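Deliverable D5.2: sample structural annotation.
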Amino acid sequence: MNTSATHAVDPSPAYLAVLRSPIGLGLATSLLLGAVIVTDVLSLASGAHLYDLLRGMPDAQAALWTVPGVEERLRYYNLSGQLQKVLYLSTGIVYICWLYRLRDNAEVFAPGTHRRGRGWTGWSWLIPVVNLWFPRRITLDIWEASRSTGPHSPDRPGRGLINLWWGLWLAQGFVALGGGAVYDMAESVGPTNEGLGLLMVADVLDIVCAVLAVRLVRTLTHMQHIKARYGLTAQEGEPRD
């Protein structure tokens, strides 16, 4: 008897795991990510409108409130920022619910093979420093557990898509953090435009990141649907009875 093989996989983490369809949550997450893209475009457009006005000012040290017409453009820009925050929060909640559903299913597909417990699926996004790599690691483990071979398996690379999405997500977060700090503290034209420029770059990065996230959501949802339907494992090429 091979005792090392016996201890290699611990089936206990799968005890409470239940296989459930991710299609509904996947659709809701994709639609909300589409709404995030719309708000990013609105923010980018209103930011460019404000940036263009301030760029025409000859004195970069002039007080922001002395610029003619700046109040109306600031109002639109700040309103688009509030709309972004509402959509980000809503999308984040639904996204984590979708990811937890996939993590639960992945425990059924491949019990005891995940490097992080299911509780980390949500908490990993909220804890500083940990949120820089745990969500990516959890997503990779879900991908591997959900991957199947055979005639019904989608032939799509996982690591490249996940790494690109996660890299852009981190880049967008750091640029937005820096741009927001500069913009909030600025009282004159020059610093305000510097903060605006960074925030507009963050909007562009976020649009690309959201597009990749939609693809990731659709692909992983489809992979789990296929695996649950045909019972394919990563090692098997034919449906189980």
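Annotation notes: Confidence is low (pLDDT under 50) at residues 1-14, 233-241. The helical segments are 3-8, 23-55, 70-109, 120-123, 134-146, 159-185, 189-230.
The annotation will be released with the project's public dataset once the embargo ends.
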